Amino acid sequence: AQETKITTVKASLPEERMYLFKTEVPMVSERQIRQNIEFKLEENVPLAPADALFFFDLIPNDKINVEKTFASVSVAPKELVDSYLKVIRAAGLEVISFEIQPKAIARAVVPQHSSETQMIIYGMNNKMGIYIVSGGVVCFTSTISIGKGAEPTLLQQELKKVYLYWSEHGEGKVINRIILSGQDAIRLGDDSKISPDPKVPVEI
């Protein structure tokens, strides 16, 4: 901290250790929405409310004067957050906020204020993250292990699964483009048939 002159950080938590779910919430105050989500935690994640910390983003809604909307909820085990806090504070830093890693990645690669829906492929150390971001909100995440010998085929299969899932559950929001990112982005992008739909462009 002394060398970099940094005193505060926003920390990202690994997607594999967290839970993400979508739930309908009333359009009321933030405090009331938070209470509404807290009541739904146990039915959506295998954690007791006392052992969980959560944060949420409201998913943009095109309708006007709606009484309800959907929220994307990220839930972290309290012990995971405490372990990160201990390490970060030992380095002389204070945490402003925690967020799920896909949200940090999306903020880095998706244009600010974008209303489009993108599928982000994040290649990293023989793992592949598949994230769907709509209107700047992370709505779906999945991380799988990949072997170097079968990556192109496996990637195509997984993308097709996620693409079909989103077609059925995406509330009519069509994926506009696929973004390849991470240290393996260029290598993964060598395959011209990576997109599950020829109409959806792929960018690195």
Q: How many strands?
A: 10
Mean pLDDT: 87
Number of helices: 5
Shape: globular
Alpha-carbon distance between the termini?
33 Å
The residue ranges in which pLDDT falls below 50 over 5 or more consecutive positions are none
**Major β-sheet, in short?**
5 strands, mixed
Element string (H = helix, E = strand) = EEHEEHEHEEEHEHE
Give the helix/strand class.
alpha/beta
Beta percentage is 25-35%
Q: Report Rg.
A: 18 Å
Strands ordered across the widest β-sheet = 8-7-6-9-10
Task: Specify the helix fraction band.
Answer: 25-40%
In words, what does this structure look like?
The chain is an alpha/beta fold and 204 residues long. The protein has helices at residues 30-44, 78-90, 101-109, 151-169, 185-188; strands spanning 8-13, 19-26, 52-58, 68-77, 94-100, 117-124, 127-134, 137-145, 177-182, 202-203. The protein has a five-stranded mixed β-sheet, sandwiched between helices. The radius of gyration is 18 Å and the shape is globular. The relative contact order is 0.14.
Compact description:
This protein is 29% helix and 35% strand. The protein has 204 residues and is α/β, with parallel strands linked by helices.
Question: Keywords, please?
Answer:
5-stranded mixed beta sheet; globular; 10 strands; 5 helices; alpha/beta; 204 residues
Helix and strand arrangement:
Elements: E1 8-13, E2 19-26, H1 30-44, E3 52-58, E4 68-77, H2 78-90, E5 94-100, H3 101-109, E6 117-124, E7 127-134, E8 137-145, H4 151-169, E9 177-182, H5 185-188, E10 202-203
Parallel strand pairs: 1-5, 6-9, 9-10
Antiparallel strand pairs: 2-4, 3-4, 6-7, 7-8
